Structures are given as structure tokens and as C-alpha cells.
Amino acid sequence: MTALLTAELRKVTTLRFWWALVIAPLAVALFAGAIFAAVDDTLTTVDAELTTSAANVGLFITIGWVALFAGLFGAVNAGTEFRYSTLTPTFLMASDRDRVLAAKLIVTAAFGALYAIAAMALAAICLTAFGGALEFDGSLAELFAAGVLASIAWSLIGAGLGLAFASSIGAAIALLAWYPVGEMIVGAILAGFGAGSVAAWLPGALTLSTVLGAATDGLSDTAPWPLAPIVLLAWAALSAGLGWWLTRARDIT
């Protein structure tokens, strides 16, 4: 298994997409940290609690972007195997497909975690450097943990889509269509049929619930903690499991 993990890691690091995709969330972290530190300055004399919340918003925005690009990383990392036909020799050299796919998903999750840690650390540094009232306490650690969990979940969702579609482009388009806009449209349709509460259990809404639940008491119309992160991970397992199953059965010659 160690050899497969090393091989998967080399596949990622020898290509440029892994660092190209992290540029956008890092840029968002930089600007969000600076901007919301300035918001903190303007709110300091108004309400200390509101100031802390303003600082957290910079991290919320960062996590939202990190989750999207972690998903895109997973989609590209899995789908590229089919584009360049590198999965065929890997399957032939390895003892079985399950071990190969497990190694790919583990490496994908690891990079998802690294994306979140790097971006949130940069946002926190910027918030502090520009005078933001960010409190380094247990609640901040919980927020960081929630961000890492959300990023890992979306990296696995993206990887599952990449394996299921057997295409990095198709999986990336699906993510870009769903994450910013598609889920809101589905939620509006569900609300029109009187099932608006179902939208709270869709992956994007669960990401919001997971992050808010770690830093605040949450909102009345969001999924409760700790069900939110559990169900988000269930979505990740469903996507990765579907991609795994289809790839196991697919003729990749």
C-alpha cells in the first residue's frame, strides 16, 4: 500500500494542477483576511462580539472557496487518469483495483486537507497582521477543524465524480454548475413544492451548517450540529463509493 500511496503522490506532484488550483483560494484568503480585518477596525468601538464575528466571516468565505477548489482538485486528479490512460498500467501493475482506488482517494483527501490548512492559516495571519480581532482559542480550532473536514469531503466528492464520469472536464463542470448556483436552484424548486427543508441536507448547505456550527450556535434553518458534518461526510462517501464501484466494473483497456 505504501508503494501505491507514493506512486499516487508522485502523480500529483509531477503535474502543475495541484498548485494551480490552490492559487485562487489562497488569493481569496489573502483579500478576505485584509478586508475583514478592516471591517473589524470599523466595528471595534461598536460591539466586541460583532467584531469577532466579522473576523470569522473572513474565514467562512475562505472555507467556501477552499471547498470548491478542493472538489475541483479531486475531479481533476481522478479524471485525468482516464484522459491520459494512466489508470490502465497502474491497474495492471497493482495487485487489485481496490488498493489503487483507495490510495488515490487517500492522497486526494490529504491534499484537500492541505488546501484548507494553507488557506485558513493565510487568512488568519492576514486578519491578525492587519489588526483584526481574531481570537486564538478553542472555537477557532473548531472552525479550522470544520474547514478541514469540509475540504476533505468536497475533495472526495470531486474525486468520486471524476471516477464516475471518467472525465475531469465533466466532473469539473458538474461541480461548477452545482456548487455556486445549481444547489440554490434545486433548493428553490424544493421550496416551491413545500419541501424547502430538504435543501438543508444538500452538500453545499451542509458545508455552511458544518462551518457555522463550529463557530456559532448556527441558524434556525440550517442542519443541526453534529448531524451536519456527519451527513456531509455521507455525501462524500456516496460520491466516492459510486465512482469506486463504476471504476471497478469499467473496462479501462
How would the blueprint of this fold be written?
Elements: H1 2-13, H2 17-43, H3 48-83, H4 87-93, H5 97-129, H6 138-165, H7 168-192, H8 203-215, H9 227-249
Helix pairs in contact: 1-5, 2-3, 2-5, 3-5, 3-6, 3-7, 3-8, 5-6, 5-9, 6-7, 6-8, 6-9, 8-9
How would you describe this protein?
- The protein starts with a helix and ends with a helix.
- The protein is mainly alpha-helical.
- The protein is 81% helix and 0% strand.
- Helix 2 packs antiparallel against helix 3 (48-83) and helix 2 packs parallel to helix 5.
- It contains 9 helices and no strands.
Order of helices and strands: HHHHHHHHH
Mean pLDDT: 85
What structural class do you assign from the helix and strand content? mainly alpha
Strand residue content: under 5%
How many helices? The count is: 9
Portion in helices: over 70%
Q: Give the biggest sheet.
A: none
Spans of 5+ residues with little confidence (pLDDT < 50)?
A: 44-52
- The rounded Rg comes to 19 Å
Keywords:
253 residues; mainly alpha; 9 helices; 0% strand
What is the gist of this entry?
By secondary structure, the protein is an all-alpha fold.
